[in-house]
Amino acid sequence: MKTVRLTMAQALLRFLDNQYVWFDGEESKFVEGVFGIFGHGCVVGIGEALADSANTLPFYQAKNEQGAVHAATAFAKEHNRRKIMAVTSSIGPGALNMVVGAGTATANHIPVLLLPGDVFASRQPDPVLQQIEIPHDYTNTANDAFRSVSRYWDRVNRPEQLMSALLNAMRTLTDMAETGAVTIALPQDVQGEAYDYPVEFFEKRVHYIERRIPSQGQLDRLAELIASAKKPLVIAGGGVRYSESGEALAAFCERYAIPFGETQAGKGTVLWDNPYNMSGIGVTGSQAANRLAKDADLIVGVGTRFGDFTTCSKWLFQNPACRFTSINVAPADAYKLNSLPIIADAKLTLSALLDHPALQGYGSQWGERLGEEKRLWDEEVDRLYTEESPSLLSQARVLGELNDRLLPHSAIVISGSGSVPSDMQRTWRTRVEGTYHMEYAFSCMGYEVAAGLGAKIAHPEREIVVIIGDGAYTMLHTELLTSIQEGKKIIVVVLDNAGFHCIDNLQTSQGIVHYGNEWRTRDEKSGLLSGASLVVDYALNAESWGAVGLRAENPEQLAHAVRQALAEERSTLIHCKVAPKSMTDGYESWWRVGTAEVSNNPAVVEAWGEMQGEIAKTRKF
After folding, report:
1. What are the structural domains, with CATH classification, of the chain?
2. Confidence of residue 392 (pLDDT cuts 50, 70, 90)
3. Which residues contact 96 (CB under 8 A, 6 or more apart)?
4. pLDDT per residue over 130-143, tens digit each?
């Protein structure tokens, strides 16, 4: 067997650089680069391999390891999970910074390969800088923290172990039912150790992502269930996007007059003005979708995880006769809510149902109600998009200005936490498929700006617009500097309401006094954070990174700022002051939270009692 002598790190990069995926007859390169921050745990190992002239994988210098993972996650999402980035770090704090990003990728079923440095496998210099010593288990390092947030986890303690580790990594990353974060811990001494690797290990390898064909039995069971329903409702999840089944979903709903609601991950696969598109569903959903869901006698989940925001903590489906079915390649999701599981590709399944004998002549009995509910919701969105404010802009008005008048329809909009995603799921009108990018499975504050960078690397020709609250921006925005460094222009719109008002709303809705969520100075008399509001100049902050900083407090200023931002060649931030509490309402939804059963505050006890009444209406499994 012919071999080549390489360090483990050199072999790792050579292998990654020759991985390809095949989907629907098209072959493409799978690994497109490496994000990371060099430290002593990786710079002389994988860092040397990246710097070597033989390496052709580009390296992107991140400014925060969590941000690097978010950027890689967004890059993979923009490529519908068929292209990825790897992310490397030093040991200790550098590695642990990536854990949040790993959880975000795994919760969203997005592939990302994490390569954190690790302590010496030889143990000779122990304890090394940044090493955590666990006296009862010396094999446990900081990287064991990735186990609970990774779909596959491994540690390469000998250079020859790399081969099985990488094959298992590729198996997981290219499995659309199992994909998520893959972590391979790399002890810093082993990264530099050489081994005679078989040449065939580095030959071009194609991973076939094939659609899972529904069986005739599955189609028959599903068709019969739909045919027996009078008022079915589809919930379109992220699987609709990743299986590229938007057209199939639209055709299915039109053929049988079935409405659908969108999850955050599924939004934008079918355009907003489709007559069967009722916009978002659930806690952050529309009035139209939520009203229909309460009366539906059959819920057809398509590529959805049935998260609690989508189902209103299993409360949304009030019809006692309501049944459930779920089309999903992931069995763990297909079985939720006691569904009839259809473990198959969404596009193939929906397309096959168009000609199924059991559905010939079938049509739902929603009748004119679909048009009426959609009309009422469209009128409500129009009102929100144009509402006047005596002082500052409302948050919904800003979204309306951006969506209806200021941004090109082809711009990709990105958000990920707080009240902004709530308003966008309800009201954002997607006019070009694939332009709505939301992280909400993990609701990770700090995803947004880094994701904007990742999306821009994926689509350098598109305008990327990050819409973010001041709380999330403050939490993590350092990849704005990386966008300047890389010449990857993004537009960041910071909606500043001086606090974590999404959580403040939740707090006060449960009878609790305003406490710890508004951005205020500490009052000397009370000792509480109830003094003056903090004033931050986010435009000036952006300018300090080398970006363009703009400001807006009214529609005219916002229009001027957006026009300038679109004309700029560098990343631009628009600091937009918005009125606190100007986000949208719940629109006939409910969310179960852990309200206190006993309290010195009577309003809290009252909220607990109300919660018990709503819990009684929920499904139990």
Report:
1. 3-208 (3.40.50.970), 216-373 (3.40.50.1220), 388-498+535-577 (3.40.50.970)
2. confident
3. 142, 145
4. 999 999 999 999 99
